[in-house]
């Protein structure tokens, strides 16, 4: 990569200042978590994760805003329940592609 950078952008090919690993979360079934906290009804658990959450930010934001302001949303969030693994006897769903 450094060779390509030097070839096309020689002035940007200076010493490496820092690196970072791209970290993201993922649920066992690859779906988001959007649900009320089981012990604190006024707290929401929201994790639009799995590496592709940014694509859904407008819809997730709208649904979460609805939940905070109105107490409910017109969006069907049943797929994203935080207790979905407990509802299956505690066993997580198999990962996609497994």
Q: What does this 3D model show about the protein?
A:
- The protein contains two helices and two strands, in the order αββα.
- The protein has helices spanning 2-8, 57-69, and strands at residues 33-36, 44-47.
- Strands 1-2 form a two-stranded antiparallel ribbon.
- The longest helix has 13 residues, at 57-69.
- The two termini are 33 Å apart.
Could you say which overall geometry the principal axes of the C-alpha atoms support? Answer: elongated
What is the name of the CATH topology of one domain?
Answer: FAD/NAD(P)-binding domain
The number of E-state strands comes to 2
User: Helix and strand succession?
Assistant: HEEH
Please indicate the percent range of residues in DSSP E strands (runs of 2 or more): 5-15%
Structural class label: alpha+beta
Brief descriptors of the model:
single chain, about 100 residues, alpha+beta, FAD/NAD(P)-binding domain, elongated
Give a short summary of the structure.
The chain has 98 residues and is α+β, with helices and mostly antiparallel strands. Helix content is 20%, strand content 8%. The chain has a domain at 21-88: FAD/NAD(P)-binding domain.
Structural topology:
Elements: H1 2-8, E1 33-36, E2 44-47, H2 57-69
Antiparallel strand pairs: 1-2
């Amino acid at each position: 990569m450094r060779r390509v950078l030097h070839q096309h952008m020689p002035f940007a090919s200076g010493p490496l200042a820092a690196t970072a690993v791209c970290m993201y979360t993922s649920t066992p079934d690859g779906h988001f978590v959007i649900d009320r906290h089981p012990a604190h009804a006024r707290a929401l658990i929201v994790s639009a994760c799995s590496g592709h959450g940014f694509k859904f930010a407008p819809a997730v934001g709208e649904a979460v805003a609805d939940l905070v302001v109105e107490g409910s949303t017109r969006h069907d969030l049943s797929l994203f329940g935080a207790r979905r693994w407990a509802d299956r006897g505690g066993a997580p769903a198999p990962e996609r592609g497994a």
